[in-house]
C-alpha cells in the first residue's frame, strides 16, 4: 500500500513515528541515511533560520555561552507530576491541569517518589546550585532555551542572582521579530534548537525529545560539550547538601565526579535486548555515523563504552 503512494507523491510524512523507530539491529547503510536526514538535511523555514542565525550571532558577539534547556514549564510539571519547590496552590493547579486532559492516563502521581527516581526536571533553584558546583562562574553567559518558566521571574530569581548574564530570546530580539512565531510553540522551540546546537556548552535539565536530538546533533558535529545531568544522583546530593550533611566543597566535588563521563564524549549506545523502549535513543547517539568504517572500535573503545546488556 505504501509503494503506490510513494510513487505518486514522492514524499511521505509518517506521523508520530519519531520515537517509535528501532535504535539497534539496523544495517549501517540505513543508519547513515537516518543521520544524513536528521543532521544534514534538516532545514527550517527561511523565516525561522534567519531569526535563529541572528540570535546565535548576537550571543556569539557577547562571548562564549551556555544553552540551558530549562524544562520547567507548566505543561511539563503538570504531566510529570513534579511539584518540588511549588506552593500548595501551584501543586493543586498543576494537578487540575493534568486531570483536564483525558488522554493523559497517569493522574495520581507522588512527586517525591518521582523526583527520587530522577524523573523530574531540575528546578531553577536546583539548577543554580548544580551550575555553580560544575564550575561555571557568575560571568557565564547563559541562554535559557525553553518556553515560559512556571512561576515566571519569581522562580528564576535565585538562578538570575547567581548568573546575572542570563538571557532569553525575548530579551535579545524586538517583540515584532517574534510576533509571527508567538502562538506557535514548535516554531519558538526551533529557534531554541538552533541556539542550542551552536552553543559552546549545552545542558538539558530533562531528557525529553528536544534534548536528545540536540545531544545527537552535537555528537555528530564532533562531540561538542553536552553535560548530561544525572538527575537521580543529583537530587540525592542536593538533599544531602541542603540538610547540612554535605559541605559545599564536598557537594561540588561529588557533582563534578558524577559527570566526568557525561560530557558528550564518544560512547557506545546502550542496548537492552528485551526492553527496546529503554535503550539509548539512536538520535541522541548515532554511533554508526560517527566514524568512517563499519567498525567503530577505534573511536568507541572500551574506555569510552557505556554498559551494553
TrEMBL record:
Sorted UniProt keywords: Carbohydrate metabolism, Fucose metabolism, Glycoprotein, Glycosyltransferase, Membrane, Signal-anchor, Transferase, Transmembrane, Transmembrane helix
Membrane topology listed for this record: Single-pass type II membrane protein
Localization, UniProt: Membrane
GO cellular component: membrane
Superkingdom of origin organism: Eukaryota
Record GO terms (molecular function): glycosyltransferase activity
InterPro entries on file: GDP-Fuc_O-FucTrfase
GO biological process, alphabetically ordered: fucose metabolic process
Main location: membrane
Pathway membership: Glycan metabolism
Entry keyword Isomerase: no
Family: Belongs to the glycosyltransferase GT106 family.
Name assigned to this protein: O-fucosyltransferase family protein
Amino acid at each position: 500500500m505504501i509503494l503506490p503512494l510513494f510513487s505518486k507523491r514522492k514524499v511521505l510524512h509518517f506521523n508520530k513515528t519519531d520515537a517509535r523507530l528501532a535504535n539497534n539491529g539496523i544495517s549501517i547503510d540505513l543508519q547513515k541515511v537516518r543521520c544524513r536526514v536528521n543532521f544534514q538535511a534538516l532545514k527550517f523555514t527561511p523565516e525561522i533560520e534567519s531569526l535563529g542565525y541572528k540570535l546565535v550571532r548576537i550571543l556569539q558577539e557577547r562571548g562564549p555561552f551556555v544553552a540551558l534547556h530549562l524544562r520547567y514549564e507548566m505543561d511539563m510539571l503538570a504531566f510529570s507530576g513534579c511539584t518540588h519547590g511549588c506552593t500548595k496552590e501551584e501543586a493543586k493547579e498543576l494537578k487540575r491541569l493534568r486531570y483536564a486532559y483525558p488522554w493523559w492516563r497517569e493522574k495520581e502521581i507522588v512527586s517525591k517518589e518521582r523526583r527520587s527516581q530522577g524523573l523530574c526536571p531540575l528546578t531553577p533553584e536546583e539548577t543554580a546550585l548544580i551550575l555553580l558546583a560544575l564550575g561555571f562562574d557568575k560571568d557565564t553567559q547563559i541562554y535559557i532555551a525553553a518556553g515560559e518558566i512556571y512561576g515566571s521571574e519569581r522562580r528564576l530569581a535565585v538562578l538570575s542572582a547567581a548568573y546575572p548574564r542570563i538571557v532569553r530570546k525575548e530579551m535579545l530580539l524586538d517583540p515584532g521579530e517574534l510576533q509571527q512565531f508567538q502562538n506557535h510553540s514548535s516554531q519558538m522551540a526551533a529557534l531554541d534548537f538552533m541556539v542550542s546546537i551552536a552553543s559552546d556548552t549545552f545542558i538539558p535539565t530533562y531528557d525529553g525529545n528536544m534534548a536528545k536530538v540536540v545531544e545527537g546533533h552535537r555528537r555528530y558535529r564532533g562531540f561538542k560539550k553536552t553535560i548530561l545531568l544525572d538527575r537521580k544522583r543529583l537530587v540525592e546530593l542536593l538533599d544531602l547538601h541542603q540538610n547540612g550533611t554535605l559541605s559545599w566543597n564536598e557537594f561540588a566535588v561529588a557533582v563534578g565526579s558524577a559527570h566526568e563521563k557525561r560530557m558528550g564524549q564518544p560512547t557506545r549506545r546502550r542496548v537492552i535486548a528485551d526492553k527496546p523502549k529503554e535503550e539509548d535513543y539512536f538520535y541522541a547517539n548515532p554511533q554508526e555515523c560517527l566514524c568512517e568504517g563499519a567498525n567503530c572500535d577505534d573511536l568507541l573503545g572500551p574506555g569510552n563504552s557505556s554498559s551494553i546488556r
